[in-house]
Structure to design on (237 residues):
């Protein structure tokens, strides 16, 4: 991380380092003991580097929007994902999603911090993509928050998970076509008026088509946000 370590973030990292000492971790990508995320798995990640579609982070051959975003023209300012969803990174995302690996979230969020510095986006608030209340009840936590919270601590940006809500249940996006994914999340979010005139960064674990982030952006813009950006750990390519 290129920014200086802030006290709240240092404390948060210290807690996880102490737990690692008490209970030696295993790598979320390959299950080898010794670290939460090993050097081998880190090297295996295929970073998504430009040229990428500016509004969904899909690799494109010439810089500019992808064919989907050219048609749908989402109201999100920019979107960036760190790595290709596959191999060790896919296993790590699953560990966040289904095994509540908080320490791993802390570790992987540093890559989002690096991307934020690289992109130079200026944002006022960090918000995770919300889960529906019923899914939150069954899972007990929101995996996007496991990335968004440590990112906010590391960057010294206000964390505001409650300003964006799901207004209705949506089907899981897994296995749906591009058009059905869009229809599935359309109008599924609402934002608090306190986002007015703010630049908001929305964090998700995985981007598949960008439909979820685009719907979050449209809810935030409707509540008066000045600009909305999106970031995710991985993107399906
Ligand atoms: Zn590993
Ligand atoms: Zn696109």
């Amino acid at each position: 991380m290129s920014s200086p370590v802030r006290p709240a973030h240092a404390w948060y990292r210290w807690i996880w380092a102490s737990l690692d000492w008490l209970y030696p971790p295993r790598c979320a990508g390959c299950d080898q003991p010794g670290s939460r995320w090993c050097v081998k798995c880190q090297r295996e990640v295929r970073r998504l580097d430009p040229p990428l579609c500016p509004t969904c982070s899909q690799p494109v051959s010439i810089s500019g929007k992808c064919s989907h975003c050219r048609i749908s023209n989402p109201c999100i300012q920019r979107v960036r994902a760190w790595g290709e969803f596959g191999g060790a990174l896919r296993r790590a995302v699953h560990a966040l999603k289904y095994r509540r690996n908080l320490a791993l979230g802390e570790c992987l969020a540093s890559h989002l911090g690096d991307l934020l510095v690289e992109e130079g986006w200026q944002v006022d608030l960090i918000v995770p993509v919300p889960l529906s209340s019923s899914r939150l009840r069954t899972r007990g936590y929101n995996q996007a928050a496991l990335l968004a919270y440590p990112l906010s601590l590391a960057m010294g940006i206000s964390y505001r998970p409650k300003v964006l809500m799901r207004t209705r249940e949506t089907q899981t996006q897994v296995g749906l076509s591009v058009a059905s994914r869009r229809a599935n999340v359309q109008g599924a979010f609402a934002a608090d008026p306190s986002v007015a005139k703010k630049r908001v960064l929305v964090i998700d674990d995985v981007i598949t088509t960008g439909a979820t982030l685009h719907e979050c952006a449209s809810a935030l813009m409707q509540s008066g946000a000045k600009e909305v950006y999106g970031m995710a750990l991985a993107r399906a390519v």
